[in-house]
Amino acid sequence: MINYIEPLFRPPSEWKSLILQVTNGCSWNRCHFCDMYTAPQKQFRAQKIDKIAEDIQRVAQRNLSISRVFLADGDAMSLPFNRLEAICLLIREHLPQVTRISSYCLPRNLNNKTDAQLARLRELGLSLLYVGCESGDDEVLARIEKGETFDSSLLALQRIRAAGMKSSVMILNGLGGVELSRQHALNSARLMNEAQPDYLSTLVVTLPLGKARMDAGFDGDFKLPDQHGLLSEMQLLLGELELEKTIFRSDHASNYLALKGILGRDKQSLLTQVEQAIQGLVPLRQEWQRGL
Ligand code: SF4
């Protein structure tokens, strides 16, 4: 139905959505832990609007019951406002039953849109943005070359909320290595407390193609915390979180311990589960079960 440039990635919760590839690859593509868009065919470029219109019309002709659209690839918000508005209008025209449009989002590409532009996109259905903050710690963010800071991430999350959109934040467990684990947890919690995102998920850093790029920011030797270190970091993060109503998930395959709940309501129960895991009282995912 749609010819994608593979590989294609989407958040797990978008499994029922139409994936519309409005860009190929990632406009930044420099984060040291990320190998998602490093294949030669994934070099960044915006898709032509004619191709996007064709894809939407082809889907519309099938009369499928599609209510959600995810704009791929790595950061559709890198497109200028006019292009995003045109895409949303095409979706509205040809797929009027769609109630939610979502996308990954780098803070800087949100922050370069005006409040009025964000409100217009919200009006046209763009209502959920996935923000890979990764960390709230400026030193960690600099070492992995995220190109963002605590302040830029917070501003983007506040502006998403002000525009009436929802935010879903990813934090990477272990991203500061052994060396920066504590400040990574504390400042990530501080960022979340100030931003109060609608959704928060944590994933364990995985480096399937090796750790050479991570080594570059860690004096030549990035040391991922062991299982105990990762759980202790989660314990610190969760203990510091003061969230009012955030849906929390730590159930991605990369995690040794699957957790889910609503924060703050379930904070104590989540902390108890982590403490039990640290004490070896609950089974953890084995390496082969992590499906990486
Ligand atoms: S911005 Fe996202 S997709 Fe792009 S390199 Fe960083 S983590 Fe990967």
UniProtKB/TrEMBL annotation:
It comes from the Bacteria. GO terms for molecular function: catalytic activity; iron-sulfur cluster binding; metal ion binding. The keyword Isomerase does not apply. It holds the Pfam family Radical_SAM. Residues 10-241 form the Radical SAM core domain. CDD domains: Radical_SAM (cd01335). Keywords: Iron, Iron-sulfur, Metal-binding, S-adenosyl-L-methionine. InterPro entries: Aldolase_TIM, BchE-like, Elp3/MiaA/NifB-like_rSAM, rSAM, rSAM_sf. Its cofactor is [4Fe-4S] cluster. This is Radical SAM domain protein.
